[in-house]
Design goal:
Layout (H helix, E strand, L loop, with lengths): L1 E5 L3 H14 L4 E4 L1 H4 L3 H9 L3 E4 L13 H18 L7 E3 L12 H12 L5 E3 L31 H13 L4 E4 L2 E2 L8 E2 H11 L9 H13 L28
Parallel strand pairs: 1-2, 1-6, 2-3, 4-5, 7-8
Helix pairs in contact: 1-7, 4-5
This protein binds zinc ion (ZN).
Length: 255
Amino acid sequence: MSLTYDDGLNSQLDNVIPDLDALGLKATFFLTAENAEARLPDWTRAAEEGHEMADHTVSHPCKLRRYTAADFLSREIAPAEGFLAEAHDAGPHTFAYPCGMEALGPGSQWQGRARYLADLKPTFLAARSVDGSPNDPRRLLKSRFDLHAFEPTYDHDDPRLGFAYVERAIHAGAWAILVFHEVLPRRKGEGDTSIAVHRRILQWLVRQPVWCAPMRNVFQWVEARETGAPPAPFQSTQSLSFPPPSAKRGRNRVG
Ligand SMILES: [Zn+2]
């Protein structure tokens, strides 16, 4: 499973990373460059500690009909990639759709989706949405730009929906990706998680039979297994959860 935190928020630096570090967990942070740039040194330190810095555009646009593919690439994606490089995450990066919108520019949904994919495919390993059931590893290469995820505390500051979603993934042998936004001393509004509830989720997670790692690590590991390529180095430094089953050595080949 993967823990993901969106928008490059200060509360994630102050209230999430210390709790992850205390449990030896590594996570994915989808940075919006405009939010994150004021604390670039702190994000850089997090990247150097093994957390994944990932792309959530420069300005987090939610109304996308006015963009061409070229505009979106030059204004939102390329500069955000430059920002991630400054934060010492060399990539390849994963992407999260701002506001979960997966179509770009005018025309039909299908045209908008094709336009968005044309921007994403040359740059990103995979892209995450904000809903759907846990991801089936056997279908991952086909759905790499539509990875499902779940926001367990979006409506209620309660850990139980998160527990249920991860348990569903465990029973299905699937990959659960959880999404969080602000993590604050007290929930102030929709999408916020209190520090106490977030901590309860982490403390529960490390007792479950799951491998918890950043999205990039999990995706690359599954990709290597599915394509028979040599597996990427297993980078998790986490000691409290199970490592993934080792790749089938007999299938390893180059090309
Ligand atoms: Zn966002």
